């Protein structure tokens, strides 16, 4: 997306992830943004200021008291010119300073002075990130209107694993672009999005489920909200926080999800069913833990309600989108599902492909419409895929006159 002429100030703090912010600055510059970089003293121990200066084609600010390039008060001029302020990697230190209103270096002073949206991208050791004081400071800043990106989970620089990695540069840039230039083309649309797996109990300690992480559905809900839709996210059990500004109903079983969807269906214009609903549930659920006795145990299963098919029979002129996770015959199986469930579009992916399986932050999909149109997408972040899905869905909604309360 073109953000030519938009002013972005990037504050770089002292963390090993500072090297990733080099690519963030490069991408923003290539998209036409005017980028100014402020580095803390500790950040300069990880990346040389010359690196950012070479990419941004602008002086890098490192000292409150250095001679200015032009006669101005640098922290005030940068604060005023910014259309967006990004802090990445945001350390526990800068988060704590902001929460307390401390302004004792160039970065913190400029942040306190700006009225621009501030996107904070934390990156730190996972124990530091989960510390109660850090989490309190984050919540304080969220309440004040600061925008946060959740850190990724994975292997840390010191060798341990956990939540605290800086998100990929492409994801940071996508978020920045959505703040700078949001496409509000779904205003007036009331949307239900489902996400995640369902759990079907066997006994109090065991259940049947699948590998769905819910990331794709949550990305759709986030993207739809950013584009102005009134979004209700109905989620199975996942380890994800609900997107800001999105109403969230948490469910566990297929029957619970069915009740939540049908209970809100009448007041929506569009449903995007990204949830991986279990096809079967145990016919009998034991009230106590089943003890291990024989070499084999027979588990009788009963078919779960087909929520998507039921919606297809009552959808009226609502737009209905389904998902199809396959391991073979992708196009054929997805097309059959599209027809049998009376969908307007189906989003299909082969979960055996690298980058398209469960739990990843990327996806490779093809979108098949009722009129036979097929749109094939390459490997993309799930948020990018979500926006491309909404691009297609928006066209269908416009054609049916939705968004004005005519859900029936």
Protein traits:
alpha/beta, Rossmann fold, 2 domains, 8-stranded mixed sheet, 5-stranded parallel sheet, 13 helices, disordered C terminus
Describe what you observe in this structure.
The chain is of the alpha/beta class and 408 residues long. The protein has two domains: 7-180, Flavin prenyltransferase-like (Rossmann fold, 3-Layer(aba) Sandwich), CATH 3.40.50; 190-400, CoaB-like (Rossmann fold). The protein has helices at residues 18-30, 49-56, 74-81, 92-100, 106-113, 126-130, 132-143, 169-180, 215-226, 254-265, 307-314, 330-340, 382-400, and strands spanning 7-12, 34-39, 84-90, 118-122, 147-148, 152-155, 161-165, 190-195, 200-203, 206-208, 230-235, 247-250, 270-273, 280-282, 301-303, 319-326, 345-350, 362-363, 366-369, 374-376, 380-381. Helix 1 (18-30) packs across helix 8 (169-180). The longest helix is centred in the C-terminal third of the chain and has 19 residues, at 382-400.
Spatial gap, N to C terminus: 35 Å
Instruction: Please indicate the percent range of residues in DSSP E strands (runs of 2 or more).
Output: 15-25%
Give the domain tally.
Answer: 2
On the 0-100 scale, what is the average pLDDT?
Answer: 90
Helix content: 25-40%
The CATH topology of the largest domain turns out to be: Rossmann fold
Main sheet strand line-up: 12-11-8-13-16-17-19-20
Q: If classified by CATH, what would the architecture of the largest domain be? A: 3-Layer(aba) Sandwich
Please report the first level of CATH classification, the CATH class of the largest domain. Answer: Alpha Beta
Determine the CATH superfamily of the largest domain. CoaB-like
Low-confidence stretches at least 5 residues in length (pLDDT < 50)?
Answer: 67-74, 404-408
Query: What is the 3D shape?
Result: globular
Structural class: alpha/beta
Q: Largest sheet, described in full?
A: 8 strands, mixed
Strand segment tally: 21
């Amino acid at each position: 997306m073109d953000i030519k002429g938009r002013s972005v100030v990037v504050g770089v703090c002292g963390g090993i992830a500072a090297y990733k912010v080099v690519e963030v600055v490069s991408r923003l510059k290539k998209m036409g943004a005017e980028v100014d970089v402020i580095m803390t003293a500790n950040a300069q121990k990880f990346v040389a200021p010359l690196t950012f200066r070479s990419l941004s084609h602008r002086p890098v600010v490192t000292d409150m008291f250095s001679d200015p390039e032009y006669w101005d008060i640098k922290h005030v001029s940068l604060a005023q010119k910014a259309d967006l302020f990004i802090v990445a990697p945001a350390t526990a230190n800068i988060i704590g300073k902001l929460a307390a209103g401390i302004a004792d270096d160039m970065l913190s002073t400029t942040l306190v002075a700006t009225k621009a949206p501030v996107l904070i991208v934390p990156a730190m050791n996972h124990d530091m990130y989960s510390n109660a004081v850090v989490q309190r400071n984050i919540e304080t800043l969220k309440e004040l209107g600061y925008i946060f990106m959740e850190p990724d989970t994975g292997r840390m620089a010191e060798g341990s694993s956990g939540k605290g990695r800086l998100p990929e540069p492409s994801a940071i840039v996508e978020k920045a672009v959505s703040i700078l230039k949001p496409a509000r083309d779904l205003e007036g649309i009331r949307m239900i999005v489902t996400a995640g797996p369902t759990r079907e109990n066997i006994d109090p300690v065991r259940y049947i489920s699948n590998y769905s992480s819910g990331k794709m559905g949550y990305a759709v809900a986030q993207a739809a909200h950013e584009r102005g839709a009134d979004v209700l996210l109905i989620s199975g059990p996942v380890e994800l926080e609900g997107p800001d500004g999105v109403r969230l109903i948490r469910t566990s079983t297929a029957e619970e999800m069915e009740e939540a969807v049908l209970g809100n269906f009448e007041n929506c214009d569009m449903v995007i069913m990204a949830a991986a609903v279990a096809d079967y549930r145990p016919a009998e659920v034991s009230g106590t833990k089943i003890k291990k006795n024989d070499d084999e145990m027979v588990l009788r299963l009963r078919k779960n309600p087909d929520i998507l098919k039921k919606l297809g029979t009552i959808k009226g002129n609502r737009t209905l989108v389904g998902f199809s996770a396959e391991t073979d015959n992708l196009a054929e199986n997805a097309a059959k599902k599209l027809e049998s469930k009376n969908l307007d579009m189906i989003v299909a992916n082969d979960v055996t492909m690298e980058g398209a399986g469960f739990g990843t932050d990327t996806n490779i999909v093809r979108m098949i419409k009722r009129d036979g149109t097929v749109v094939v997408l390459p490997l993309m972040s799930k948020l990018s895929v979500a926006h491309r899905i909404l691009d297609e869905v928006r066209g269908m909604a416009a054609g049916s006159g939705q968004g004005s309360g005519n859900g029936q």
